[in-house]
Structure formats: C-alpha cells, structure tokens
Amino acid sequence: MRADRIDLLTRVVRDRPGITAGELARELDISVRSVFRDIGHLRDRGYPIEADRGRGGGIRLHASWGLGRVLLSSEEALCVLLSLAISEKLGFPIFASDVARARRKIVDAFPSAERKRIGPLRERIFVAREASANVRASYRVPDRAASRQLQAAFVATHIVTAEYEKADGTRSVRRLEPHALLISWPAWYLLSYDHTRNAPRTFRFDRFHSVEADTSSPFRARPREIASELLGATGLPLDGV
C-alpha cells in the first residue's frame, strides 16, 4: 500500500537525515522516480522536506519538524484526531491551517484498516450552538470511568447498560445504542436509541453514573437519522465534525 510506504519513507528520512534518493529507493524497493513522487506528496501535506544535491546533501526533514519518537496507542491517536477535527469545526482562531495539516498527518499514520474506521466516526460527531445559561450553570465534569466506557462503546458500536440521573435527581438504568455525540459547548450529549423506552433519546454526559458495554451486542450506527429524529424539530443548527 502506498500509504504504508510513505509512512516508512517518512520514518527513514527522519531517522537517517541526509539519505540519498538512491538509498531510499533501494531501502523501499521502489524507483528513484517514485521516491521523488512520494516526497512531493509529503511536501503537499505540509512536511518540511529538504533535498540537496552533491556531497553533504541528501534528503532530510527540517530540524524544527516533529516531536521525536512520540508513540501513541490507537485510542490516544484517535482522541487527538477527533479533538483536532472538533477544533476545526469550532473555528479555532489561530493556527487553523496547522490544525488541518496535523489532522491529516495523524490520519495517514493509521494502518489502512484503521483509516476506514475514522471517516465514519467523524460523521457521528455534531457541533451545535453554545449551551444555554441554565445548562452552563448546572453542567459538571462527567464521571471519568463512565465516560471511558461510553467512549469505547461509541467507537466499537456496542450497546451499553447505563445508570443515568435525570434533571430532577431520579436515577434509572437504561440500555442504549450510542449513535452520535453532540457538542453544545461546554456540554456534551449522547444521541442514542434507548431500548428501555424504545425510542431515540438525548443524554447529558455529566449525568451518567455507571456504564457497562455489552461487547456481544454491536449495532449499526445511524447518526444522521437519530440526530434528525431528536433535534430536527427544535431548529437547532447542527454541523458534522
């Protein structure tokens, strides 16, 4: 796969500054023309690659590039990727082009099978206008353990059993399909199908007390359909991440 080859080329150039095009071609078992084509692709993606001819020349990444050997798990990389995508959608006022390039580079770093999973995930996150004053006043930091379980179930499209607290303080146990996330800053909402009520329902993240995923019960994500059913009548403007 070309994406895997470009990822390997990037790592070789980073680790062996000054390597020649011929050496890269032999290392990757491709032609010199393909090396320069891949380098051109990386430059288009924002990588500061320098190439000098003659003694002491070669190909290298600019010294200011990168953070060294930073290793992220797939979950950490996905978290960073979605955070960057959300920053783009919210209209991050500075470094906007850098945010977009960083997101594309992280996408490129995933194996091809993982990249196929990323696109649909971005389609399942929506951004709405800022939360009302009443919501901002009552919103609190969500339970970390519950949020972690919701995150895993959301990515894997697994049904969850959750203890949820309503606005009046009463609690109930719900069986939910986590179809989409809605950001109405600073509040986060889960847009789900509630098997307990047999209908789509919206849940605030900060009101979940416990969540357990059922890994034997996957579902088919229907983010647009669920969002439309829950919020279409309210006139709330939605943008996908």
Explain what you see.
With 241 residues, this protein is α+β, with helices and mostly antiparallel strands. It folds into 3 domains: 2-61, Orthogonal Bundle (Arc Repressor Mutant, subunit A); 74-122; 127-240, no CATH class. It is built from 9 helices and 9 strands. A hairpin with a 2-residue loop joins strand 5 (171-184) and strand 6 (187-194). The two termini are 27 Å apart.
SS-derived structural category: alpha+beta
Helix segment count? 9
Helix content: 40-55%
The pLDDT mean sits at: 81
Alpha carbon gyration radius:
22 Å
What is the string of helix and strand elements?
A: HHHEEHHHEHHEEEEEHE
Distance between the termini: 27 Å
Shape category = elongated
Beta fraction = 15-25%
Number of domains: 3
Q: How many E strands?
A: 9
Main sheet attributes: strand count, strand direction, barrel closure:
7 strands, mixed
Indicate the low-confidence ranges by residue numbers. none
